């Protein structure tokens, strides 16, 4: 028996031993080939117990999930003792004791389908928290190429048919010849009987056999006593990782901020992960923000009994991808609301808002929010109006198409009160409004009484435009809007049929993290934006309404494609984190409220006090503003120019205290921005 403390030295020794007269190499599965993200394997039993309790409640049976855990342990231990009395090893068999547990709880309501559902959930959770060692994956490929037989030999209550599902999920199934579990015939490695059983099955003597595992007794002494060469891995790095995770878990019980830190730490990639800085930022920063936001949506959809969730805008497409990864774990009973994607944008919906109500002062104020010189041409362009046919209306109030609005606001507001002008606006936008309404009907939105709509932020303009486009409809659904950050605050119109809330930031609630959201919203938008073209409008084709994508020759499109290449690693890291974090949130039983305190600290640390390398990696090269003036050149697609995000990397690196000074300025800028928005809108 040889003991190794590093995975690299073990891999080298196995290669050398395989070159000798070795026909069979057996591997232990858990903690050898596969590593668990969590420190204790029994942690996955809790979400399974909660699922069983929920199914029991659906059948009118009230039982606490903790009682289910206790019953499971009692039945498992009883079966182990029974197997010993039958001259078998002290092992339990999962399908047997789980079936007995369900019969005890459900009685006559128990069925084979229930056992299958519970087993599928447990295996899905197991697969989600298991990651293969990349170094041993390469070793398995080399052994296969050398013609060695590879077998999995594991002591576990899961039978080999269940282990085959785990191997398939982790990509190991194609590299091995077979798998044997102690649950198959209750013969374990710890007693030595599993080695004799496999030798009889394969007809291979111990002198041509090499076994690799992590347990000194079961994987070291017992195979050695049988005459098998045994290599035992005692991974010092894994031991330190588990000890630090357990220490952090102890702190998390008393310190709320430590819960999110534990969640992210458990979701860290293991060996062979991509360490590029943009990928790491997506994984460690944007990933937790997105996953916790989607978790909040799931909780609210469940509590409000919403049957469908609509994601929109290009940022919503990324959030929907995360939802699809997470929903099977957060709704294990299959009750997840249906998720759909709406291809809408401010530019596509703005004309439709005028089809029935005309051009309102509140909507026109959005054009004034954008920096730079704004004219009536910009208003016409944004709301799909033909300025040539409106010249006589402009002339009545001594306005011209190129008149700067900010210097002519009184005359412009009088124009908005002109009935003839508003009738012309309605006529010009009627067709656009009809197309939007038909598209929403086509997507099933108008068939619901209530629906959730999701976007990243910030003023909630798209949701407001969506609501105004169908406000005249007699069966308009109630829209429950969810934003990651909501900066509209008191400017949002009070409408019980169109409610909205911000998750990490809401301007209607006092929050110290507000400057972190307002300092550089372009950073969030470009990190979450899916690499797809924007939506410019709609058209009828083949009896359906199809979105019109931004033209490929649009000046902003080539710059967006360049930005997509820069942001691609961030997006990849974000989605990778979501794949691990969703089952971990279920296993840890964390809600979005549990993660909220840590998320605010994370947000302020990364946005207000970033490292210089993070500023360089996260700051977008281009950002397209849909409200930009028609006179603006493509080079004016704005990037952050305020706070830390507008400073030179050299300044950040060499001037001490600059980040703190910039943070104070940004807090003042956030307040002034609120006042500036107020002047552009009608009073609430």
Can you walk through the features of this model?
Helix 10 (217-225) links the parallel strand 7 (209-213) and strand 8. It is built from 28 helices and 15 strands. It is of the alpha/beta class. Helix 13 packs across helix 14, helix 14 packs parallel to helix 24 and helix 15 packs across helix 20 (419-442). The longest helix has 34 residues, at 555-588. It starts with a strand and ends with a helix.
What layout of secondary structure does this protein have?
Layout: E1 2-4, H1 7-18, E2 24-27, E3 34-36, H2 45-58, H3 65-85, H4 94-106, H5 112-129, E4 130-132, H6 134-145, E5 149-154, H7 160-170, E6 178-181, H8 182-185, H9 193-202, E7 209-213, H10 217-225, E8 229-233, H11 236-252, H12 257-266, H13 277-303, E9 308-312, H14 313-330, E10 338-342, H15 346-357, H16 361-369, H17 376-382, H18 391-396, H19 409-416, H20 419-442, E11 450-455, H21 461-469, E12 478-486, E13 498-506, H22 514-518, H23 521-528, E14 535-541, E15 544-549, H24 555-588, H25 592-608, H26 612-618, H27 649-654, H28 658-680
Parallel strand pairs: 1-8, 2-5, 2-7, 5-6, 7-8, 9-10, 9-11, 11-12, 12-13
Antiparallel strand pairs: 3-4, 14-15
